[in-house]
Amino acid sequence: MITFILKRIGYGILTLFIVISITFILIRLIPGNPIERMTEELPEQTRLQVQEQYGFNEPLRVQYKNFWRDLIFEQDLGESLTYRGRKVSDTIANYAPISGRLGAQALLFGVSFGVLFGLFAAFFRGKVPDYGVMFLSILGISVPSFVFAALLQYFLAIQWGLLPITGWGTLQHTFLPSLALAMGPLAKYARYMRANCLDVLNQDYILTAQAKGASQFRIIRKHIFRNSILPIVTLLGPQVAMIFSGSFVIERIFSIPGLGSYFVSSVTDRDYTMIMGQTIFIASLYIMSLVVVDILYALIDPRIKISGS
Questions:
Q1: Residue bearing the bigger pLDDT, 162 or 37
Q2: Rounded distance, CA 127 to CA 133, Å?
Q3: Which long-range contacts (CB under 8 A, 24 or more apart) does 168-177 make?
Q4: Does 131 have pLDDT greater than 90?
Q5: Number of H helices and number of E strands within the chain?
Q6: pTM score of the predicted model
Q7: Are 164 and 157 a contacting pair, CB within 8 Å?
Q8: Are 201 and 122 in contact (CB under 8 A)?
Q9: Region of residue 126 (left: phi > 0; alpha: psi -120 to 50; beta: else)
Q10: What span, in angstroms and rounded, lies between the C-alpha atoms of 215 and 306?
Q11: In sequence order, which residues have a C-beta less than 8 Å from that of residue 197 and are 6 or more positions away?
Q12: Which residues face 87 on adjacent strands?
């Protein structure tokens, strides 16, 4: 297991290096740079001094070398080019927990109810509950999250006055955006769980367990649930990283001061340092989640054996 984990971490570091390198090169291959746009009305000598200060006067290979030097030896992601004096690492540390909380609540809600609805639909296949769950799944997959956000704001906040329409700070402020963000994962997990359960229910060992007199609860917990949940875990890994990058529109709609607004603005403003910092953060989360998923495979299903070979 230790050898496997170390090998996966090594692959992850290599993947992260490739992602960072490609992102660094691509954003700098675009003609012009943000310093030129911000200093276009300044004298030529001043523009050159500002470009020299940020290192944009250097060749690309020198900028690339300096970037890795600062990242590895000084653990410095640099300062934002748009928000002067604000370090990228401080921005991530301050605003990522807000996006993380919103995404974690949405993911918890989507996975819990998606798995529950999928089990429910499988046991009532071809009946009204099954059709209801499938309708909800199609609705959740086909309708964008910002449409659900607008509907929730209109009915629950404006018409009924049950929850605040925008803002952040209390648990009540998190309910509507989390629910809007959870509709897509809920629909996806419900469909996968239903299909997996139907496949497991047709297996011979389920009939054997029933013939031995095992209770329905034991069959569901020991056989159906554990064998059906494995594909859900596969989907759950990448989704963990997406909780930080998938809530940008929702954060804008509900005026949530999360990391999403900074990511969107950094792309439009071509804030190189902010783009690189958030790319490193999200890519690291994504790679770590995949390693955790591989380890969970063996814990959930003992039939999966991990060896050094």
A1: 162
A2: 10
A3: 168/98, 168/254, 168/255, 168/256, 168/257, 173/254, 173/256, 174/101, 174/102, 174/105, 176/149, 176/152, 176/254, 177/102, 177/106, 177/149, 177/247, 177/250, 177/251, 177/253, 177/254, 177/256
A4: yes
A5: 15, 0
A6: 0.80
A7: yes
A8: yes
A9: left
A10: 32
A11: 118, 119, 122, 123, 224, 228
A12: 79
pLDDT value of position 263 = 78
Domain boundaries defined on the chain: 96-260
Q: What pLDDT was estimated at residue 309?
A: 47
CB contact set of 202 (below 8 Å; sequence gap of 6+): none
Return d(Cα 197, Cα 43) in angstroms, integer.
69
Q: How far is the C-alpha of 204 from the C-alpha of 274, rounded, in Å? A: 55
Which amino acid is it at 230? L
Give the residue carrying structure tokens 């603005």: 265
Give yes or no for a contact between 263 and 245, defined as CB atoms under 8 angstroms apart: yes
Question: 96-260, what's its fold?
Answer: MetI-like fold (1.10.3720)
